[in-house]
Design brief:
With 71 residues, this protein is mainly α. 75% of the residues lie in helices and 0% in strands.
Length: 71
């Protein structure tokens, strides 16, 4: 599962560098459930978000956050 997460993280960074945006309309309700059920994974994603934002000024959508939390 770690390797799978790293692959998804790599694609996430690639999308960020190319400024490709993912639409979040369909994931909000499901994401709320995932955040509650997988608190540790969500907390990890929040740390990644903070690091990327502070170091590289990257900000990602709820869809990206949802995607990374699941993997």
């Amino acid at each position: 599962t770690y390797c799978r997460f790293v692959v998804h993280l790599r694609y996430f960074v690639t999308r960020q560098l190319s400024r490709e945006r993912v639409i979040d309309d369909d994931v909000i309700e499901l994401f709320d459930i995932v955040k509650e059920k997988y608190k540790r994974a969500y907390h990890c994603v929040q740390k990644i978000n903070t690091l990327l934002n502070e170091k590289y000024h990257m900000v990602y959508s709820n869809s990206e956050e949802f995607y990374l939390t699941l993997h």
